[in-house]
């Protein structure tokens, strides 16, 4: 018997995979806030696999919130993009896995991120580029944090994408109440005012996330605000 | 005579017709020139509005899907305002684009310092892997724009200016040209500075090089020139003085050499007026250049 049989991971394995990076079974809020949304996306929504990374028709997932990427690396490992053997080296000189991801080093990562406010504008360009090439199937997803939303570059992208009718564009905002100045009227209202389709759901509820991620939104970009426990709680 | 900027939309519109990879990203500035191209290629001529961070991010996203984005606005808003996007969305993502600027160092002096960008090339110089074209004539701008778009997925900056030499030369998008040969020094003129440099060095025994592609810096041409003209080098650049002195120094690191960097001064003049007045204020008119070159090279330069 060979050892090539692919290990099959489930959601229950993510905590252990993250433990390989942190040496700890308990993980900080920054690390786990994105975990459920990422899992639902990669497990049930995104049409992307390690084998399809060179396929122009694959869905694109852009992790803009590059801080605390352990859940991202764990999900990429569970879905076969990364070998689990890489995880213990997290952040070390010889590891491709940094405390902020680098697309050049991390298989499956569409962008490098860490500096806040870059992912959504790049996602706008990605959606435009796919459209210009007649690639009508791929959907573009970008994940940002509620405090990251403070960056003006995101507001440039939000204000453009709505009127431009970028229906292939999807944003997930992980809201763990970390913005110092809460947005009057709530996060979804900011997007709705710019012409986006919006939903706000419990960011730990997989069925609610899935329903929000897959709801039709013809002619408009879509935002899903995934609320999780406050960062400082 | 038309201007370099007048060539931009026609040349790139033609490239849009010829190459389905080419896309244009604008932030209001220059959109009128692309009105017809936008009708023909609505998905590949994109105006994001007055949003310069989105301008660069959008170009990067287009590049990541395999397109060749040409991104344009005034230099201040293309390189300086969204500098971190240039650094990360293109450089760190390993994505390419052609950035084409207008307004240069002081193309609209009456507009004041907000629309001046003498530091653009020096700023790009902090990043790795950029090709920088500084045409000195509309015909050269035409040629270099085509080189830039054709350069695979490279990161290329094309700096268009209202300042121009009277005649265009046959530039190749890589090398310095030798315009005059002498034995007592090398004067390298960048882009629109050539005419003033030729007037300033009239009768001097110097080699005059003409540079329209300044990054990568043509080390071989400078070294070759110094073999007969000596390693006293004057650089005359239409942007921040000294931008290329380190590159020239590196080119001549193994031989004794002296380098004088002339260009736009760092101090903000807080003056309006016209281009010629600013050229003079920065000591870049032929008469001022002559004095500074004479002062640097000394008496032996007199032919």
UniProtKB/TrEMBL annotation, chain A:
Cofactor requirement: thiamine diphosphate
Database matches in Gene3D superfamilies: 3.40.50.970
Keyword Protease attached: no
One Pfam family of this chain: Transketolase_N
Domain of life: Bacteria
Coiled coil segments of this chain: none
Residues covered by the Transketolase N-terminal domain: 27-215
UniProt keyword list: Thiamine pyrophosphate
Statement: the UniProt record of this protein carries the keyword Secreted: no
Homology family: Belongs to the transketolase family.
Name of this chain's protein: Transketolase
Organism: Streptomyces dengpaensis
From TrEMBL, chain B:
Domain of life: Bacteria
SMART domains: Transket_pyr (SM00861)
Pfam families (UniProt xref): Transket_pyr
Location of the Transketolase-like pyrimidine-binding domain: 2-167
InterPro entries referenced in this protein's UniProt entry, alphabetically: PDH/Transketolase, THDP-binding, Transketo_C/PFOR_II, Transketolase-like_Pyr-bd
PANTHER family: PYRUVATE DEHYDROGENASE E1 COMPONENT, TRANSKETOLASE-LIKE PYRIMIDINE-BINDING DOMAIN-CONTAINING PROTEIN
Name of this chain's protein: Transketolase
Natural source organism: Streptomyces dengpaensis
Lineage of the organism: Bacteria, Bacillati, Actinomycetota, Actinomycetes, Kitasatosporales
